[in-house]
Write a structure and sequence with these properties.
This protein has 263 residues and is of the alpha/beta class. It has a domain at 2-164: Rossmann fold, CATH 3.40.50. It has 12 helices and 6 strands. The chain has helices at 15-27, 52-62, 74-78, 84-94, 106-111, 118-124, 147-154, 167-175, 186-195, 204-216, 230-249, 254-258; strands spanning 2-8, 32-37, 69-71, 99-105, 126-131, 157-159. The protein has a 6-stranded parallel β-sheet with strand order 3-2-1-4-5-6, sandwiched between helices. The radius of gyration is 19 Å and the shape is globular. The two termini are 27 Å apart.
């Protein structure tokens, strides 16, 4: 069986993720796509993350009635920073006989040569890349690979008719009280609303108003952020300094969402 492996934080899962998985099934003749949510460590404060249990619950809701899509919790169970090569080795052991296809987006492919044990990944899975509308693969060898390896990676590139959606934008809209209509499956949007996910302390009432307005078809009203005092601004500056230091110490771009085609 040809099994697509789709890794990412899915924070939250959105319609772009689902469209990419559907496109991969068709473009590469896959039998199934396995979503592999990654563990998110608490120090990723610059990327507000829902708890593992919530992201897993939203994935399960999104994949209802999609029999060719499933979930592996291998990285959530492992905890900490999960490298793709470790995950693929585990999946090879738990899915003997299956042909693994690692699904990437263009940005991930272009940085793939810097991933931990990238060449070992090529021995464990076929790397398949889906391009967003309007994007193209640049000419020449890919960074970190010789010509033969680059040609192998280019052999499995297809155009994906997928909406240009990012989890970052979804979270921003929720925090700002803006509509997420068309970006999320209804079941996921309802889960986020019910559990108050991604609504920052500055915007909880705006988020509720935006959700109610979206459901009733009313025009949304922009929200304003409360004034932050001098002490609050100083705390924010210190927090940003810690976040920059933590990002500099990150083992590589793969940790924290570098694998995710639509992050």
């Amino acid at each position: 069986m040809k099994l697509g492996v789709f890794g990412g934080t899915f924070n939250p899962v959105h319609n772009g993720h689902l469209a990419l998985a559907e496109a991969a099934l068709c473009a590469f003749g896959l039998d199934r796509v396995l979503f592999v949510p990654g563990h998110v460590t608490p120090f990723k404060q610059d990327r507000p993350a829902a708890p593992d249990a919530d992201r897993l619950a939203m994935l399960r809701l999104a994949l209802q009635n999609r029999p060719r899509m499933d979930i592996s919790t291998v990285e959530l169970d492992r905890g900490g920073v999960s490298y793709t090569v470790d995950t693929l080795e585990t999946l090879r052991a738990t899915h003997p006989g299956d042909e693994l296809w690692l699904l990437l987006g263009l940005d991930s492919l272009l940085s793939f040569g810097h991933w931990y044990r990238a060449r070992d990944i090529l021995d464990l899975a076929t790397v398949a890349t889906l391009l967003r509308p309007g994007s193209s693969l640049p000419d020449g060898p890919l960074a970190g690979f010789d010509t033969a390896q680059s040609d192998s990676l280019r052999a499995h590139v297809a155009n994906g008719d997928c909406p240009d959606i990012s989890s970052t934008e979804v979270r921003r809209r929720i925090a700002a009280g803006e509509s997420t209509a068309g970006l999320l499956p209804d079941s996921v949007a309802e889960y986020i609303r019910a559990h108050g996910l991604y609504a920052t302390p500055e915007f909880p009432r705006c988020f509720a108003a935006a959700w109610n307005g979206q459901k009733e078809g009313r025009k949304l009203v922009a929200c304003t952020m409360p004034t932050v005092g001098r002490r609050g601004r100083a705390r924010r500056r210190r927090s940003r300094g810690r976040q920059r230091a933590e990002r500099a110490d990150s083992p590589d771009g793969e940790a924290g969402g570098g694998r995710e085609p639509f992050h």
